[in-house]
Each structure stands twice: as C-alpha cells, then as structure tokens.
Write a structure and sequence with these properties.
The chain is an alpha/beta fold. Helices cover about 35% and strands about 25% of the residues. The longest helix is centred in the last third of the chain and has 18 residues. It is globular. Bound molecules: adenosine-5'-diphosphate and magnesium ion (MG).
C-alpha cells in the first residue's frame, strides 16, 4: 500500500465549539492507483488530505505512506516522496516570484543539483515551453498557473501527488486539459494520485476507485467502473451523482441532509 489510513480523526476547536471534521476514516491506496475522495463542501475531504500531507498535525489514528508510519510532523525527506497541489493556483504561487524562482526553491531546499536542467525538464513535462520560465504568475492564465503548481509539486520527483480540487477554480475547457495532463503524468511517472473533489465527473475521468465522505465519515467506497454501472447504493452518493451531472432546479430542491 502506498497510503494507509486507519481510524483518522481530526477535531477543530474546544468545548461547545468543537467540530469533528474527520470522524474515523480508514482507507488505503495502492501504489500507482488513482483514488478519488468525494463529498460535498465541508464533508472533511481537505482535512484528510492535509493530515496525510503533514499540513495539519492535530490528528489521531494512523497514517502510513510508502510503508512508513508518519507522525504529526514530517521529516524533510517526506516531501520528496509526497507532494500536494491546491485548488487555487492564484493563492498558491508567490505573486512576486518568477516561475523559475518558484521551481528553484524546492530544489534548493532539498539540496538537489542540476536546478537548470530540472526546471527545463519539469516545465516541458507539464506542457509549458521555456518561454514561461521567467514569467510571473499574473502573466499566466489560470490553467498555466495550475500547470506551474503541478510542476512545483513534480520537481522533486515524488511518488505520490495529493490534489485538492485541482480543477475546481478553472473554466470547464481548461479543467479537461488539466485532467488530461494529470492522466499523462500519472502514466509517465507511475504516480499514485489522491484527488479530492466535490465533482464525481472529475473522479470518473481520472480515478480507478473512490470513497464518498459525508460529515467526516466514509459512507461508501467503490470502483469507478461500479460507479459508471450505477452501483452507488447510499442515498447520499446518488444525490452527489445527480448534483455532479449539472445543476438543475428539481435536483437542487430535492437535496436533503444525510447525517
Ligand atoms: N482550520 C479549521 N478550523 C476550524 N474548522 C475547520 C478548519 N478546517 C476545516 N474546518 C471544518 O471542518 C469541516 C471539514 O472541512 P474540510 O475538510 O475543509 O471539508 P471539504 O474539503 O470536504 O470541503 C468543516 O466543517 C470545516 O468548517
Ligand atoms: Mg476542501
């Protein structure tokens, strides 16, 4: 197993204000697999990903990545194994740094040589020519910015990419380009992907298997093939399925809370 999560729990706040964001999640992802974590906004998807990535150290349970048990704080070497990509390519890139500097930083932090060759190679890998190297984020389109964010994650040659709504901030046509890019990168680099999204169509496009979260718990787990064949059983998943086929008023009005 590349990722093994047992009984993960994450609480925020104290006393009466406490929120149990993740309430006993157990799941595993095989090496080379592409796994989707879906659910409505607020269901705890990002919190699971942030705990795995080491961004949140307030959790209980067990998290193992590539066979190594992880504590709350991650050693530097962890980030050569496992990298995260965020939803918002505007917010996640430093506005006053060129693409070159954004990509050079992780190379320097990890003391890797050959920065020049690595930067050129990773830009080519994400479909950006050398002309993009000395641009600033504001000189790029949303899709190009997300390519840079993916390049920054890939520059350390990790085995695992954690993607939090990687296409949700993008126009539909650009979403498809980024999904195609991720599919190609996965095949070329043998990456293990964990993709968080509220959109089942994105999961159907990129993933082999998925788990559905509702209010901090996993309510259903299935293969994408089973999803396509209509094997979803949980009313919550069926609702999500209708919602991700696009907005229509009758669907929206039929929504209810599944506790
Ligand atoms: N840093 C935080 N402090 C307090 N509550 C948080 C924090 N992060 C997330 N939450 C709460 O935890 C729950 C799950 O959030 P999140 O994991 O972001 O959901 P999702 O990614 O599925 O939209 C929500 O109720 C959210 O408000
Ligand atoms: Mg989220």
């Amino acid at each position: 197993m590349m990722i093994d999560i047992r009984d993960l729990r994450v609480r925020f706040g104290q006393g009466a204000d406490a929120v149990t964001a993740v309430d006993g999640v157990t799941l595993s992802v095989r090496e080379g697999e592409s796994f989707g974590l879906v659910g409505e906004s607020g269901s705890g998807k990002s919190t699971v990903l942030r705990a795995v990535s080491g961004l949140n150290d307030e959790w209980t349970g067990r998290i193992a990545v590539a066979g190594t048990e992880q504590g709350p704080k991650r050693p530097k070497g962890f980030y050569k194994l496992c990298q995260m990509v965020f939803q918002d390519p505007y917010g996640s890139l430093h506005p006053r740094h060129t693409v070159d500097r954004i990509l050079a930083e992780p190379i320097a932090i990890h003391g890797l040589g050959d920065a020049d060759a690595r930067i050129v190679r990773v830009l080519r890998d994400v479909g950006l020519g050398p002309a993009f190297r000395f641009r600033y984020p504001h000189q790029l389109s949303g899709g190009q910015r997300q390519r840079v964010a993916i390049a920054r994650a890939l520059v350390l040659e990790p085995r695992v990419l954690l993607l939090d709504e990687p296409t949700s901030a993008l126009d539909v046509s650009v979403q498809a380009e980024i999904l195609n890019l991720l599919r190609r990168l996965r095949a070329e680099h043998g990456l293990t992907l964990v993709l968080v999204t509220h959109n089942l169509a994105v999961v159907a496009n990129l993933c082999d298997r998925l788990a559905v979260m509702n209010r901090g718990r996993l309510v259903e787990e299935m293969t994408v093939e089973e999803l396509r064949q209509g094997a979803a059983r949980e009313p919550y998943t069926l609702q999500l399925l209708r919602a991700s086929r696009g907005y229509d008023r009758a669907t929206a009005e039929s929504f209810r809370d599944y506790a």
